Amino acid sequence: MKILITFLSIFLFLQSNELEEGIKLFEEKKFEKAFEKLLPLAKKGDFKAEFYIGLIYDMGSIKFMDKEKAVQWYLKSAKKGFARAQYDMGVMLSKGEGIKKDLKEAIKWYLLAAKQKNPQALFNLGVIYQKGYGTDKNLTLAKKFYKEALEENLSKAGYNLGTIYYKKDNFKRAFFYFKKASELGNKKAMFFLAWLYENGFGVKRDFEKAKYWYKLSATKGEKRAILKYIEILKSENKTSQIKFWEKVLK
To answer: CATH code at 187?
Structure first.
């Protein structure tokens, strides 16, 4: 019995190493080598290997591009409960890539991934219920899913929440979510946060903080922030800096 347990432990260890090597090769964009390493594991039913073979067929390279095969492998992995594969099944069904477009079926897969706190699935559900894609609009559910995605540090979920409250003139709540998203690096949220600081909406007016967030947003390439920051620099007669940012705009 001890010999059998030892043999199984060695086998599982070696298989784990093969999987890690295959994933590393994928991340290094060495898709052919990754495919060779992962396919035998996928054929044996390893759910992570199945998922990565799906990824290779989905977006690995032109040589492997086959959306139908991607769906087949995603589905194998998704049925075993792997959240990333469940999310990608939702994406393929939403777009109709490799499978007939079916928004209701996409929602089912997103929900399964969302139960495992997959941030992208949570975000997509927020969009779906906010816009009414494949289902009735439900802003309460949209906000719920966005909040859960934000808890997983997905900045664009905070930005979308901020815009929801901003459009309703609830600037205090808008400020709260734009700040959260800005702290996570979202350039669009930074622009709106700066605007709120500049105008004193939802927060005490603070021009220095507005300037800070406009500049940070501008450095990330947000065009509206660049234009606002140039305005500020013009008011301060900082000619050399103005020239730099005007070149950035071109």
So the answer is: 1.25.40.10
